[in-house]
Amino acid sequence: MAFIQIIEDEHLNRLAELVTTLDMYMLPNGNQWYVGTVPAWCRNCARFVLAEDFESPDEMERKVRSLYEWSEKQISQIRGSREETLSRSRELLERELETVRQWRMVMAARYSAPRCLECGGTDYEPLKGDGWLAHPAVEGQRVRARINAHASMATLGRFFDTEGRQIADKFESSESSKEEGNGDIV
pLDDT tens across 39-79, in order? Predict the structure, then answer.
């Protein structure tokens, strides 16, 4: 799912359009996890950007378990081979809980603050909260961030290491090989 967030001033002038895509962290065990984002004013970029917004491992686990409980209730109402479906559901729960364990390790070991997803810097001010907020760089001006649209995504976005630094992804190298006339997919 992709979201387009609009940053606008009190006169409804668009100051920025930020597109949240399926950016992913590469976890130590090879799993991937979605990069949570928040609109922010980056002092390095001198513009509105998307920055990392960490979800706590405890909140992640609560959501996973809640979804599993809901799923189990739905499955219990199905006639037929419920045991097989419940077994698959339990397997999925275990995979998701393993991802939560990986995220817990990442958060315990991470030394850097959340980063701007454009420049990788940590000097930014997130726009958190509903409604109008003071513009981080223009005194007396107020801004708000709102979701303008969303769309399904067929491909993943960018990849980041667990410190929030962008890394090259496998799709990028495949596309560059094709453009160079090399038919091999890397």
Answer: 999 999 999 999 999 888 888 889 888 888 888 777 777 66
pLDDT digits (tens, 9 = 90+) for 137-183: 999 999 999 887 766 666 668 888 889 998 875 444 333 333 333 33
pTM of the shown model: 0.73
DSSP assignment letter at 116:
B
Question: How far is the C-alpha of 123 from the C-alpha of 128, rounded, in Å?
Answer: 16
Nearest CA-CA partner of 43 in 144, 113, 122: 122
Phi, psi of 116, deg, nearest 5: -70, 135
Contacts 24+ apart (CB under 8 A), 44-48: 44/116, 44/119, 44/121, 44/123, 44/124, 45/116, 45/118, 45/119, 45/121, 46/137, 47/16, 48/7, 48/15, 48/16, 48/18, 48/127
Give the contacts of 42 (CB within 8 A, at least 6 positions apart). 48, 49, 51, 116, 118, 119, 121, 123, 124
The mean pLDDT value of the chain amounts to 81
**Helix (H/G/I), strand (E/B), else coil: 130:** coil
Give the span between the Cα atoms of 135 and 166, in whole angstroms: 27
What is the C-alpha to C-alpha distance for residues 74 and 60, in angstroms, rounded to an integer? 21
Q: At 66, list the tokens.
A: 């809640």
